[in-house]
Write a structure and sequence with these properties.
The chain is of the alpha+beta class. It has five domains: 2-55, Helix Hairpins; 79-306, D-amino Acid Aminotransferase, Chain A, domain 1, CATH 3.30.470; 310-412, Nucleic acid-binding proteins (OB fold (Dihydrolipoamide Acetyltransferase, E2P)), CATH 2.40.50; 421-566, 5' to 3' exonuclease, C-terminal subdomain (DNA polymerase, domain 1); 581-652, Rossmann fold. It has 24 helices and 24 strands. Strands 12, 13, 14, 16, 17, 19 and 20 form a seven-stranded antiparallel β-sheet that branches. A five-stranded mixed β-sheet has the order 2-11-10-3-9. A hairpin with a 2-residue loop joins strand 19 and strand 20. It binds zinc ion. Zinc ion binds at residues 323, 398, 400-401, 403, 414, 416, 420.
């Protein structure tokens, strides 16, 4: 019993990290092992303790989202992992249906196959032709209401032709190409596309959701008197109402053609721009499926075939240590190049020294490597510890500046924030990043160059640079130097929220920075704020409040802030959010418009939108007047919403339209 309770506690913590915080601390393998052990104990003892995760379908609920009770419960599917298991499932389905034929008239048995996507399941409620609610799956009975978040998924229709009441299930996904782009342009990379999608939708800030540019595919509908009678017709119904449906699906009538489809999907899945981890097989006829009923957990008329995560063996050649912006020292494994899921892998994350110890790693050892839909693969453990392996030593000093390292929890830190080079470079790159001071052209490479060739140690020193200084940098020509100089100058008057992000206050990310700026309006007001006052702002806890206080009372930081101010870096006082209702939207105007183009542009910009001259995938929508030409065509190609100019008054009144 004690062991069971301990396992339950552990799994609940991990669930919270995984589903709620978007930041798992254990590998899937460790999670699975604990979960399987718990289920085994429950079977052996015949007892399921209260709160056991084996009885639930999904994750824990956040407090701050409204709960939504699904009108029709969402079932999860039973899983099969090999050919024999799937064949047995098909045979059982055939027997059940044969039995049903004694009393029912049913069509010949057929199955549909579709991809099983690896994202976040969402439930969309429509009534009278309108999207009126959207929710996560949650426990299957109760989820979280996330309508504003789901509205940012542009491919999900807000209005449809069908007017009956229904709930549509979809999988929300982040494209792998979008993830790659995100990770290339953000400080903190996202671990995988699944967590990215889940984290985006379960985020109270819809601007973050929007920025992740999710897509969705719909695959199920529940309701009364629906106008279709099979899965095949259901897909056609979804398509005719404008729902996004994945182009692949197949209908088969026997096991061998079913297996052929599974092999095809297995071969094709690594070529897709989205994560998939298997195939969903459903009995095509809905009446048959309904008659087949449920076991206590799963419907009998559908099953998921899951592909095994690919695991390969390779040699651990080396471990390299890097120092981040906060001084945290992190190990990375260097591997003999190996192909896994169509990608050549040479690196794997190792979170900290404890991780190395726990996995029993040594240099020269053969290790198991798994890429379970993650961007960076993980080492599961050592396969074989040959005679020639060498132990991995724990660091005592910073690999860069040789200061003595300090242990804090499971991590090690270099406290030399003044002259430890990688820390300075990372800090400067962060300072200049898009969500901070937005200095275009100040890449990591340029930051390193400034440090090396100009001996720049403080971000404030950036503002002392002249074009000639930049021109003297290796590889800098006139135009590049001027552009960077202009970008640095232009960053002097960024809004307070961006300035706060740039400062890199521990615990203060984009969202908290925005909350602080909206509350205090000016830097001086924030500097004077006491811990207690800070905690009155929603979502700021005592720890963050303390970090903020400590930050502003630090002498060295105060000096740096004074220096910034003396050099003309004065963050713009935050305007009330209500004055900038279109903040974050990128709009393109095209065709001949009633209102003068320039006046409309100014009015939109004043309300926070950016108006650009050409349509790209970053465009949120296009306003088209008469005789719109190539921009309109381009928008249609990219699937970007186009509104007629009759929407302009609403837009100017602050309605965001998408
Ligand atoms: Zn150091």
């Amino acid at each position: 019993m004690d062991e069971m309770q301990a396992l339950i506690d552990k799994i609940q913590t991990w669930n919270r990290e995984y589903y709620t915080l978007d930041n798992p601390s254990v590998t899937d393998a460790e999670y699975d092992a604990a979960y399987d052990r718990l289920r085994k104990l429950e079977e052996e003892t015949g007892t399921v303790l209260p709160g056991s995760p084996t009885g639930q379908v999904g994750g824990e609920l956040l407090d701050h989202f409204e709960r939504h009770t699904h009108v029709f419960p969402l079932f999860s599917l039973d899983k099969r992992q090999n050919k024999e298991g799937l064949q047995a499932w098909v045979e059982r389905a055939e027997r059940v249906v044969d039995g049903l034929r004694e009393t029912e008239t049913l069509p010949p048995l057929a199955f549909t196959t579709e991809y099983k996507f690896d994202g976040l399941t969402i439930n969309l409620t429509y009534d009278n032709g309108e999207l009126i609610q959207a929710a996560t799956r949650g426990t299957g009975t109760v989820g979280e209401a996330i309508l504003p978040q789901v509205r940012t998924i542009l491919s999900i229709p807000k209005r449809i032709a069908y007017t009956g009441f229904m709930e549509v299930q979809a999988e929300a996904l982040m494209k792998l190409s979008t993830l790659a782009h995100y990770n290339a342009t953000h400080d903190e990379p996202l671990k995988n596309a699944r967590n990215a999608a889940a984290g985006a939708l379960r985020n109270l800030d819809t601007r973050i959701t929007r920025a992740r540019r999710l897509i969705a595919y719909c695959y199920a509908v529940q309701g009364e008197d629906l106008p279709f009678s099979s899965q095949t017709e259901l897909f056609a119904f979804l398509e005719s109402n404008g729902f996004p449906v994945f182009p692949y699906r197949k209908r088969v009538t026997d096991f061998s053609s079913l297996w052929e489809e599974i092999e095809k999907i297995r071969a094709a899945r690594n070529t897709l721009d989205i994560l998939t981890d298997g195939v969903v097989i459903k009995v095509d006829d809905l009446q048959t499926r309904e008659h087949m009923g449920h076991t206590d957990k799963f419907p009998r008329g559908a099953v998921a075939y899951k592909f095994e995560a690919e695991i390969v063996e390779t040699e651990l050649e080396d471990v390299i240590w890097s120092v981040g912006r906060t001084g945290k020292v992190t190990p990375t494994a260097v591997l003999s190049p190996v192909d896994i899921g169509g990608v050549t892998v040479q690196r794997a994350t190792l979170n900290n020294y404890e991780d190395i110890e726990r996995k029993g790693l040594a240099l020269g050892a053969t290790v198991h490597l798994r890429r379970s839909n993650d961007v960076i693969p993980e080492i599961l453990g050592t396969v074989e510890d040959g005679a020639n392996t060498r132990p991995i030593e724990k660091l005592t000093h910073c690999p860069s500046c040789h200061s003595e390292l300090v242990q804090d929890g499971v991590h090690q830190f270099c406290l030399n924030s003044l002259s430890c080079e990688p820390q300075l470079v990372a800090r400067m790159t962060h300072f200049a990043s898009k969500s901070a001071m937005d200095v275009a052209g100040l890449s990591e490479k340029t930051a390193a160059l400034l440090l090396k060739e100009k001996d720049l140690h403080d971000v404030a020193d950036l503002y002392t640079l002249h074009t000639e200084d930049l021109l003297a940098l290796s590889g800098f020509k006139e135009k590049k130097a001027k552009n960077l100089f202009d970008a640095i100058q232009a960053s002097k008057g960024r809004p307070l929220s961006q300035f706060l992000v740039a400062l890199g206050i521990p615990g203060v990310g984009v969202r908290t920075a925005r909350d602080l700026a909206a509350h205090y309006h000016t830097l001086d007001a924030l500097k004077d704020a006491g811990e207690e006052a800070l905690t009155e702002i929603p979502d700021i806890g005592t720890i963050t409040a303390k970090e903020i206080r400590t930050f502003f009372t630090d002498e060295q930081i105060a000096e740096s802030l004074q220096k910034l101010e003396a050099l003309g870096v004065v963050p713009k006082a935050q305007e009330e959010a209500a004055d900038r209702p279109l903040e974050g939207l990128t709009i393109v105007l095209t065709g001949s418009l009633q209102m003068k183009r320039r006046e409309l542009e100014e009015a939109l910009v004043k309300r926070g939108a950016s108006v650009t001259g050409s349509v790209s995938k970053n465009t949120d929508f296009v306003i088209a007047g008469e005789n719109a030409g190539s921009k309109l065509t381009r928008a249609q190609e990219l699937g970007i919403p186009v509104f007629h100019e009759e929407k302009v008054p609403a837009l100017l009144a602050g309605e965001r339209l998408v």
